[in-house]
Amino acid sequence: MAKWQLLWDAEKLASAQGVWDYYEERLKMKTPHKPLLDEIIDMLHERHKSELRPELGELDPIRQWFIKDVSKMHVMIPWAQLSVREVYKEGVKDYRTLILFVSEADDICLNALEKAFIFRRDHLFEYGLEGEELDYNILTTGYDGLPLPWTSNPNIVTSIRSLVDLAREMVFQISEEEGEIPFSKKVAGDNPRLVKLCCQVHMERYRWCLAQPDDKTRATGQALKQEFETNIRYNQVTSLAKIGMAESGMIIAERLKDMDTLVSLVWDELNFLGEERDNTDNEEEERHFENSLKKLEQRIRTYFEKFGQAWADALFGSHIHLHKSAMMLDKRSVGQELLTKFLRSQPAYAKLSWVNDVLGENDFAAASQALMHVGTKQETRDWSKKVEVSLAKLSLMAAEADGKVDAIEQREARSDRCDSELRLLELQEKVHKHIKPTIDGALDDDSAIDLVMMDYGTLFVKNRPALQQLLKRGFEEIIAHRVLDAGLLIDVLTLMDHAQHESGPQDISGRQNFMALQALAASQSILDQATWEGSLKLAWKRAFLCDDWEAVNNTVQQADEQVQEALEGTLIFWTLKQGYQTGLWDKHPNLHLLSPSEVLDAGCRADELQSRFPSEDLRDPIIKDNIKDDDDLQGFLSACRLDYWYAEIKELAKRRAFDDAELRAGLSMQVVQEDVDVTPRAKVRVNGIMGTVEEEPEEEERSAVEDSDAVLQSAGGFEGDDEESEEAEGDPMEE
């Protein structure tokens, strides 16, 4: 500490010498006002200056102070700025006089502090401090155990900052109102040096505070550091452009490695030079500004080599902030690798990253990955997501076509994920087309949701307020063309009424349960395991509640043919048959054709719904409604033999699907053999799978179907309600 104290005392002497040299030059100037230093010494409190003794010939207060009181340099320096304010308060208002005083205040502070910092840098070795590390002529570390350096006295820190602002604003006002006057250009030229000093004293101040043992001082240091790095430094350096000192500001920002500030100055200068070039009619001036622009652009290119990723991150981040992303993605001779690293560094940039992956890197695999992130993690609009996921799949195919299959991680999984996301969007689009006639009749979105709920939300969610709100939320998202998550899409499909309001290919009435199972097949790799399994059970549970099982179970005085017709008229039959026909059950064995008793309690436990509804306020009412559904299902199981009828329906659906396939194959062969123009059952793309839209069969075909039914019925009847039917069932008929 003693070595530092000796050095600091020597710094004050060097500082005083610098101020005195300035004063000598100032005395040579002839002005109506006395030098500002005279005002400063006069304003100093008596305890900061030695008393003059006229009787001993001591008549010069300035020399007296520099002979006896230079140890108070840290007190005198802040008065350079304060004295200008005092002069202003005393009535000096004209710019020509004030700018002279500001110029003198600048000179005093610059000569005092610059000389001190230079002396420190050049004489560390002489004071035995050669092991200390300086940056910007201030200690980087090692403040613990040291008193506060005199150069970062709180009053100096505050006054230098105020003087920088005062000088800059005065120059700006003069240039706006009067143009250039004596000393205004000098004050503008001094401002970058003052800004540099301002940064030095702030950094030294907060570094010292942070090294102190007491919490209060460290907290002060932390607050000052944050204020300096987020506001003070940026504002002081960038404001230099306001007085035509942008290049000097760039030099300071480069020295401090402040990339955000440097980028801001670069943009300001680019805009200024571009506007000046475009607005001048003078060819020579136009060439001058054009050359200046080229030099600045070259300077920007050197920053990529000098500062690397730090510069790239700041520059490219500003492109995004200023909505100039297109400029960033232009073909570039430098910085391409840094741009790619920047865009891939944050998921938020994925919408730009995939464009760069294609245009700048020719990396379609990376583009596909970025597009999938955008589509699945960021996108909220259904059409936009469809485009992004489709492009992701196309990019993946392009990467494969380039022979980069081995370089694509989890290629099959990524391709399957694209297909799954597109399938879910396709199902959502089908729901929208189904309810669109109702939407078209509404005045606005609010009335549309009311009408849709009236048409499709009155039966299955009756007396189920939480499920009703869940269905309403799903419809709101669909009407607004927002992307539904897989869980909500399944809820909409299993809770909406099966009403048919307009026939045609857009009508999905009766097919919602099958579509929900298609959504489950597509979302197995998207939803977490617990949520998926819970949704599967819930989908089957709600499917079982769609039919009138009391009517199905009442087989009194009904022939087997009538019973079979009743079974084939259930939605469960159609759902199962469609699954067999399309191969859904074979392709996705995990869907499990669950029986009614296996889905009891589905959606009635918190762990099943935890990931979708973390809040108990949302989850508990839904569980309450699911329990009500459980009670209804239990009633069907105990009173209507639902498990038995489900087993019969499952076998019947499988046979019907097989028979229909055989019939279609036979008819197709007949057409080929007879070369007859016969129109087969309409083939359309149902939910992304080539399926069959069943139409009314022709007479010949109907008789074949009826004959087939007769054969099935003769093989075994259906169990009735009474003992007589059981006895009558007997043994199967022999062939």
Task: Describe it.
The structure is a single chain. The chain has helices spanning 2-27, 36-43, 61-68, 73-76, 78-89, 95-123, 154-177, 184-210, 215-238, 246-256, 259-279, 283-307, 309-321, 325-329, 336-345, 350-359, 364-378, 382-401, 411-440, 445-456, 465-479, 486-495, 512-523, 529-544, 549-553, 560-568, 571-582, 584-587, 606-609, 616-640, 642-674, 699-715, 723-729, and strands at residues 134-135, 138-139, 683-686, 689-692. The protein is mainly alpha-helical and 735 residues long. Among the domains are: 410-518, no CATH class; 528-728, no CATH class. The strands form two sheets. Strands 1-2 form a two-stranded antiparallel sheet. Helix 8 packs antiparallel against helix 9. The longest helix is centred in the C-terminal third of the chain and has 33 residues, at 642-674. Mean pLDDT is 87; it is low at 671-735.
Layout of secondary structure:
Elements: H1 2-27, H2 36-43, H3 61-68, H4 73-76, H5 78-89, H6 95-123, E1 134-135, E2 138-139, H7 154-177, H8 184-210, H9 215-238, H10 246-256, H11 259-279, H12 283-307, H13 309-321, H14 325-329, H15 336-345, H16 350-359, H17 364-378, H18 382-401, H19 411-440, H20 445-456, H21 465-479, H22 486-495, H23 512-523, H24 529-544, H25 549-553, H26 560-568, H27 571-582, H28 584-587, H29 606-609, H30 616-640, H31 642-674, E3 683-686, E4 689-692, H32 699-715, H33 723-729
Antiparallel strand pairs: 1-2, 3-4
Helix pairs in contact: 1-6, 2-5, 5-6, 5-7, 6-7, 6-8, 7-8, 8-9, 9-11, 10-11, 11-12, 11-13, 12-13, 13-15, 15-16, 16-17, 17-18, 18-19, 19-20, 19-23, 20-21, 21-22, 22-23, 22-24, 23-24, 27-31
